[in-house]
Design goal:
By secondary structure, chain A is an all-alpha fold. Chain A is built from twelve helices and two strands. Chain A has a single domain, classed as MetI-like fold. In chain B, helix 6 packs across helix 8 and helix 8 runs parallel beside helix 9. Chain B is elongated and about 85 Å long. The chains are: A mainly alpha, B alpha/beta. Chain B: Keywords: ATP-binding, Nucleotide-binding, Transport.
Chain lengths: ~300, ~425
């Protein structure tokens, strides 16, 4: 009961501690993101058709049919329903993003902890590797990794998520490593050593809780970026194929030819979905940053009023 | 005094830290020397005793305390505890040993993990030593918290350090230290970060814990008043060495080492009529990387004699101090005659000074001497001879005094002749 209350209070802190613009950014971002998450979870019930469904009740859908009562967002050249694909696309996007952030956290955070805590040559080598990854244009890196990984795992959600992780892990690593380097000098770490704690225990129970705090911010900001990279990969035809799952970037690629023929609906809706979700996630990230990052947090100051000086 | 068995027996313990020097030096791996934080300390802690380590900041007292837990690696020497040598133990043996030797830190706010509750912080000491059952842990935690006077315990168990006051936090730190049932507590300035009103209570609590649990303390402090109240024996530390050690009453009643005398005089005195005669030790604590020759305290010592270890750097300090009192014109004239002081930067007992002619340099030195004939440095000068464009100053060779018996205490000072070597072994 007390634990639940503590969790709820912790979840509410971004609201209670922000004011003005920061709070609105957070609220609007959460609402937009929330809608997409709901779409993703309930896609089978919300979407009128399947993502690779070209006919219903034995009747084929029209080819590149304009929006109508049957097909609100129209249909595309492969006879798929655009609205269904847009909704199912939310599921793919959210799946990939959550999976890739999970991979990033699971790999990047422990690496950062170990590297920052032990230092020495391990730290040097890891820093070098991570900085090298950082220095690459991230999209190029994602392309290379998705080439490699689709060979191994096929064009699955997992393969794409992993190739996205590869470009974001250095960020998690960097942030966690740097906070660890400063946190390990704290007296409470020496106190932990004084009670006889092993290095593993110190990292898990003493450092982890204190260095993890900046990870949610990076997570949400990276999520927005990951959506764009995912769409970019799909647009290039890498990653997920249209019969495996609905993917906005891939749909945009196919819509490219339609645009000249006056078929606007196949490109508009997936594109709009990307813009909206990226905006939502960015707003959440910036809002969180404003709350959690004390250097950005604005405190309301009252103007100092001096008593008027008497003329002598 | 009844002699109790020795609990910790430290012999010739040294803890040296390597200096890494500047960026270039680090790149080419050049050794920039060592700081001798602890430099050959021998001391014993008896069962049920409170041993005070008193010294200025930089005297190595905290490093010594950390070395007792194996937190600072010993460079040489041994730390005997229960017949085993701490300095040669493996990491896992050391971890097991920390059930018996525990530490209390100076700043209670920093010594507690901000993301752990009181119950977790205290219980973690048990958890790392393999107590799996959380119920059992809780019992022990509650017991320890009650013992340090945090009651009602239920009120504190789920609090975070930020919710507690400084005194309460220090009580939690004490609870964490005693929860495993240690035999020795190393208390590193446990009250210096606390409010005045809380200090006495914490000290009293520590005395109660000592009574109830049969603890022995190593009490590290720079505060002589609390040491007088708290300690059975006091060791005065200076630059990594013990300069005087003995029973508290004897040290306070009859300070022998000039440094002890200076420390005692430096303590604030509530009597305004007596607040005048304070000749504090001059200057600062010297650089522990290149300590003075002979007795480390001699550059600041008012009672120093010829064999205290006078050397070139002392002459440099003297000249520089002298020039701070000159007008710019006088300074220009004199420094032109004396030349660069860089030759005086090393610990040499024979040194060449000056470039403006032997007579000019000699007259400057004589003038300085006439101004302050009591300056102890002159006692150490053996000879001043003409040497090229300047003079050569030879100092008496210094003696590095070892701890020797003097009255009821051991003291490391050449003023107390080493006449009874057999007696000092008896302790």
């Amino acid at each position: 009961m007390a634990a639940l209350r503590r969790v709820l209070r912790a979840l509410a802190t971004p609201f209670t501690q922000t004011a003005g613009l920061g709070r609105w950014m957070l609220v609007i971002g959460l609402v937009i993101t929330g809608i997409f998450v709901l779409l993703a979870i309930f896609a089978p019930w919300i979407a009128p058709y399947g993502f690779a469904q070209a006919s219903a009740d034995g009747v084929d859908f029209p080819k590149a049919g304009a929006p109508s009562g049957e097909h609100w967002f129209g249909t595309d050249r492969l006879l798929f329903d655009v609205m269904s694909r847009t909704i199912w696309g939310a599921r793919t996007a959210i799946e990939v993003v959550i999976l890739s952030i999970l991979i990033c956290v699971v790999i990047g955070v422990p690496l950062g902890l170990v590297s920052g805590y032990y230092g020495g040559w391990l730290d040097r080598v890891l820093l070098l590797v991570m900085d090298a990854l950082f220095a690459f244009p991230s999209f190029l890196l994602a392309i290379v990794f998705s080439f490699l990984l689709t060979d191994l795992f096929g064009g699955s959600v997992l393969a794409v998520a992993m190739s996205l992780s590869a470009i974001y892990i250095p960020q998690y690593y960097r942030v966690v490593r740097n906070t660890t380097v400063s946190a390990k000098e704290a007296t409470y770490v020496e106190a932990a050593r004084a009670i006889g704690a092993k290095d593993g225990v110190i990292m898990r129970r003493y450092l982890f809780g204190n260095v993890i705090q900046s990870v949610p911010v990076i997570g949400t900001l990276n999520a927005a970026d990951a959506i764009l990279t995912l769409a970019g990969l799909g647009f290039l035809g890498l990653g997920i194929q249209s019969t495996d799952a609905a993917e906005w970037g891939h749909d945009l690629n196919r819509a490219l030819a339609d645009a000249g023929a006056g078929v606007w609906w196949t490109g508009l809706y997936p594109g709009l979905a990307i813009v909206l979700l990226v905006t939502g996630l960015t707003l959440v990230g910036e809002g969180l940053n404003e709350t959690l990052n004390p250097t950005l947090r604005k405190r309301r100051l009252l103007p100092v009023v001096m008593t008027t000086r008497e003329d002598r | 005094m009844p002699t109790k068995p020795d609990l910790i027996d430290v012999r010739d313990l040294s803890v040296h830290f390597g200096l890494r020097g500047g960026t270039l030096g680090r790149l080419v791996g050049r050794d920039a020397g060592v700081v001798r934080a602890v430099d050959g300390i021998s001391v014993t802690l008896r069962e049920g005793e409170v041993l005070g380590l008193v010294g200025e900041s930089g005297s190595g007292k905290s490093t010594f305390g950390r070395a007792l837990l194996g937190l600072a690696p010993a460079t040489s020497g041994t730390i005997g505890f229960d017949g085993a040598d701490l300095t040669s133990m493996s990491r896992s043996e050391l971890r097991a040993l920390r059930q018996s030797i525990q530490m209390v830190f100076q700043d209670p706010s920093a010594a507690l993990n901000p993301s752990m509750t009181v119950a977790e912080a205290v219980g973690d000491a048990l958890r790392v030593h393999g107590m799996k059952s959380s119920v059992e842990r809780r019992e022990r935690v509650v017991e320890a918290l009650e013992r340090v006077g945090l009651s009602p315990v239920q009120l504190f168990l789920d609090k975070y350090p930020r919710d507690l006051s400084g005194g309460q936090k220090q009580r939690v730190v004490l609870a964490r230290a005693i929860v495993m049932g240690p035999r020795v507590l190393v208390a590193d300035e446990p009250i210096s970060m606390l409010d005045m009103s809380v200090r006495a209570k914490i000290l009293q609590l520590m005395l109660d814990l000592k009574q109830d649990l049969g603890l022995s303390y190593v009490y590290i402090t720079h505060d002589l008043a609390s040491a007088k109240f708290f300690c059975d024996r006091i060791a005065i530390m200076y630059l990594g060495r013990i300069v005087e050690i003995g029973d508290t009453e004897e040290i306070f009643a009859n300070p022998r080492h000039p440094y002890t005398k200076a420390l005692l005089r430096a303590a604030p005195d509530p009597d305004p009529a007596r607040a005048v005669a304070k000749d504090l030790p001059r200057g600062e604590v010297p650089d522990a990387a290149v300590p003075p020759l002979g007795c480390s305290f001699h550059p600041r010592c008012p009672e120093a004699v010829a064999q205290c270890g006078w050397e070139a750097r002392d002459l440099r300090t003297l000249l520089e101090t002298h020039w701070t009192r000159r007008t710019p014109e006088e300074y220009d004239a004199e420094s032109a005659a004396v030349g660069s002081l860089d030759a005086l930067a090393r610990p040499d007992t024979s040194v060449h000074v000056g470039r403006g002619g032997a007579d000019a340099v000699r007259s400057i030195l004589d003038r300085i001497r006439d101004e302050e004939p009591d300056e102890p440095l002159w006692r150490g000068v053996a000879d001043v001879t003409d040497d090229g464009a300047g003079v050569r100053v030879d100092f008496h060779p210094g003696v590095d005094p070892a701890l020797r018996r003097a009255g009821g205490v051991d003291v490391a000072c050449v003023l107390y002749p080493d006449d009874s070597p057999d007696d000092s072994a008896g302790g």
